[in-house]
Amino acid sequence: MGVRLIKIAVVYFLIAISLGLYMSFTHVFALSTVHVHMNLLGWMSFAIAGILYLLFPHLTLTSAAKAHFWLHNIGLPVMMIGIALAILGVSPVFFPVATLGGAITVLGVFCFGYNVLKNLKTNA
Questions:
Q1: Is the pLDDT of residue 124 over 70?
Q2: CA-to-CA distance for 46 and 48, rounded, in angstroms?
Q3: Which ranges constitute the DSSP H helices of 2-62?
Q4: Are 23 and 31 in contact (CB under 8 A)?
Q5: 56 — phi, psi (to 5°)?
Q6: Torsion angle, CA of 108/73/84/22, rounded to 10 degrees?
Q7: Is the alpha carbon torsion for 40, 15, 72, 122 positive or negative?
Q8: Which residues contact 88 (CB under 8 A, 6 or more apart)?
Q9: Distance (Å, rounded) from C-alpha 104 to C-alpha 99?
Q10: Three-state DSSP class for 27?
Q11: DSSP 8-state class, residue 77
């Protein structure tokens, strides 16, 4: 699971950096929120979680880890697409879609937090 999360993190990093470069070239920064969220919740959060799962493989054996993986991976793209389409004015229905994706992502992150706080023990 750790390696998969790191690879997913890199994909988010590539997309976010490309979006940032596009905004820089066009001087249109309407999607800055998407860019920032992809970097933080995609690149950084997935990479850190992946590294923790590699360092402490027993964390990956829990149902919380599996819930984290799927909720975060489903919620984040829904949130990013919802935010982008709402900001671009496609339809106001995408604001609640973004909120739903955000709520799913938060649930996934809380599963990760619960897993780490409950199952990561010191060796002493």
A1: no
A2: 6
A3: 2-26, 32-37, 45-55
A4: yes
A5: -130, 75
A6: 120
A7: negative
A8: 30, 31
A9: 9
A10: coil
A11: H
Specify the pTM: 0.91
Query: Position 30: which residue type?
Result: A
Q: How far apart are CA 67 and CA 82, in angstroms?
A: 22
pLDDT digits (tens, 9 = 90+) for 67-105: 999 999 999 999 999 999 999 999 999 999 999 999 999
Amino acid at 25: F
Length of the chain in residues, anyone? 124
pLDDT value of position 121:
87
| The one-letter amino acid at 33 | T
Query: Which string of DSSP letters, residue by residue, matches 46-64?
Result: HHHHHHHHHHSGGGGGSHH
pLDDT digits (tens, 9 = 90+) for 11-62: 999 999 999 999 999 999 999 999 999 999 999 999 999 999 999 999 999 9
- Identity of the amino acid at 27: H
